Amino acid sequence: MSASASATASDVERLQGPLLRAQGLVKGFGAVPALNRIDLEARPGRVTGFIGPNGAGKSTTLRILTGLIRADGGTATIDGMPYAALECPPRVLGVVGDLAGAHPGMTARGHLQTQAAMIRASDDRVEQVLDETGLRSAARRRVRGFSTGMRQRLALATALLGEPAGLILDEPTNGLDPSGTIWLRRRLRAFADAGGTVLVASHVLTDLQQMIDDVVIIEGGRSLWSGSLSDFTDNHASLEEAYLSMIEKEMA
């Protein structure tokens, strides 16, 4: 991945702290509490894994961070501002979530050109992300014929159009074969190594362990742990073992 797809060194110096931050997030849906003072940080140059069981509040937290829903309490900021306050959000934060976002009748290039026009990105940038995500040979193909792996590449290409400083990905390896998983892991690692901020929510702990630097763990809408992967897995054989040990203690 080229440096143009990531935060520059000057961007990192300017940020002086987490690009993505949630503090004391509270959210309920009717009488059902979803989040109870969730805290989260993701920093430049690092890949942060966001972990928790189904129903823990991961997707709700990400939806608040990306401006899709409002919190009942607490703050969620991107580069110090709420997502909705950013002048052009996709130029600060790329989001990889719903793989059905591209119309099946459009070509990969046509989809990217449409998205680029919305954020005033150039046609040259479209061609760059086609190359960066390995979609050059499929640029003229209709999205309806894409495999899950190719759709994931297209979703990432879309997220990279605005040359954002950060990426958020929700369960990005779902449906990917081993080669697709390895490809995605390498792309995200390269993005972070070039100074970008990456936040990945996933249940697949074996995949996460091979790409992340930091871990944020939530359960039942509550924050359980936040810190480096090495600190969290200290005295444990793997991320999965350390995670299960923590959850078992919480349930005891």
From TrEMBL:
<feature type="domain" description="ABC transporter">
    <location>
        <begin position="20"/>
        <end position="245"/>
    </location>
</feature>
<keyword id="KW-0067">ATP-binding</keyword>
<dbReference type="InterPro" id="IPR003593">
    <property type="entry name" value="AAA+_ATPase"/>
</dbReference>
<dbReference type="InterPro" id="IPR003439">
    <property type="entry name" value="ABC_transporter-like_ATP-bd"/>
</dbReference>
<dbReference type="Pfam" id="PF00005">
    <property type="entry name" value="ABC_tran"/>
</dbReference>
<dbReference type="GO" id="GO:0005524">
    <property type="term" value="F:ATP binding"/>
</dbReference>
<keyword id="KW-0547">Nucleotide-binding</keyword>
<comment type="similarity">
    <text>Belongs to the ABC transporter superfamily.</text>
</comment>
<keyword id="KW-0813">Transport</keyword>
<dbReference type="GO" id="GO:0016887">
    <property type="term" value="F:ATP hydrolysis activity"/>
</dbReference>
<dbReference type="InterPro" id="IPR027417">
    <property type="entry name" value="P-loop_NTPase"/>
</dbReference>
<protein>
    <submittedName>
        <fullName>ABC-2 type transport system ATP-binding protein</fullName>
    </submittedName>
</protein>
